Amino acid sequence: MVTMDRTEILEKIKQAEIKVEEAIRAAEEERKNKILEAKMKAREIIESAEAEAVKVKEDILNSARQQIEAEKEEIRKRETKNIEDYAKKGKDNIMKAVEMLYNEFVGMMEHA
Fold first, then answer.
1. Which InterPro entries match?
2. Please, where are the H alpha helices in the chain?
């Protein structure tokens, strides 16, 4: 049977306490590193999500702009045609009015 004296026992206890303290410090350091890594990863995820959100927003805006431009062009064409139709009708009406006035004038001259 091995017997240790009190000094040896105290020394072993002290060494065990030192090992425990070192293990605690190492665990604490590892915990801090893991938290830091998690924060960095979370930041990366947030930045990636924000970048994706910006891209989606730009895509939506570009699509809306294209649609608006297409609608504007369609309206522009339709209204240009309407204006041309009104102009043609106006010219036709002017010719009819001139012809009517001419006929009235000729009729008045014949009776004069």
1. ATPase_A1A0-cplx_hsu (IPR014275)
2. 6-111
**How far is the C-alpha of 88 from the C-alpha of 78, rounded, in Å?**
15
Cα-based torsion angle of the residue sequence 88, 94, 97, 99 in order, rounded to the nearest 10 degrees: -90
Distance, in Å, from the CA atom of 106 to the CA atom of 112, rounded to the nearest integer, reads: 10
d(CA 54, CA 48): 10
- Label residues 84-104 b or e (16+ Cβ within 10 Å = b): eeeeeeeeeeeeeeeeeeeee
pTM of the predicted structure, to 2 decimals: 0.52
| CA 55, 57, 63, 68 torsion-angle sign | negative
pLDDT (tens digit per residue) in 10-30: 999 999 999 999 999 999 999
